[in-house]
Task: structure prediction
Amino acid sequence: MPLSPLAKYSVRKLVRQNLNDLSKIFGTDASYQILNVDLDKIINHIYLDDAEISIKVNELEALTKIYADLEKNGSDEADFSEIKRRIFNILGFREHRCFPSQLPIIVQETMTSMFYFYYENEVRKGIRYQGELYGAVYKFDVTNRLETYQIAWAFSEQNIPLVVTVSGQGHTLWINLRSLAYSVLLHQDMMLLKLVLPLHSALRKCKYAIFRQGRGRIKG
Result:
């Protein structure tokens, strides 16, 4: 599954914007390679399994779109930093000391197996992904990609096992059925969840500032 031209453009743009930092950490040759070599070849070289390649390509597609959404919304550096780290990690750039975070898994809905189950007197929708079972808790319109990701990100950082699926109809947030969070979030009002986002953003800014200060002391 090849990376789309738009995603390739976005990745190369991101590399150019961060070329100096990447070169300092990983060397000039490795950094310039992404600019001059077909990204599909790089991904196929790093990930030999077809299923894993497909997962990483889909993840890059989603992350580059989310990064563009963050740019449009003028988001904080902490958010940009984590998305960039995830993109660069997929491409083989793995810095040992980086801002700690837990990002949600994003996959195409077609890569999961759908099923239905009975829970609390209702038929619920579920998916099987990588040997785990998940239940749907929230569905978002296709235009609410950034909001979906931010809510999923907030949950992931609370160690709630989840998957975000993408389809032509929108985005769905699924919680692992073995997690107690499924029954809780199943009944959680969406408006209340949106109130959590500013708090999550503020906490991330604080953590990121502390992290940057710590790196400064180490370098000094």
Summary: Strands lie at 105-108, 113-119, 122-129, 132-140, 162-167, 170-176.
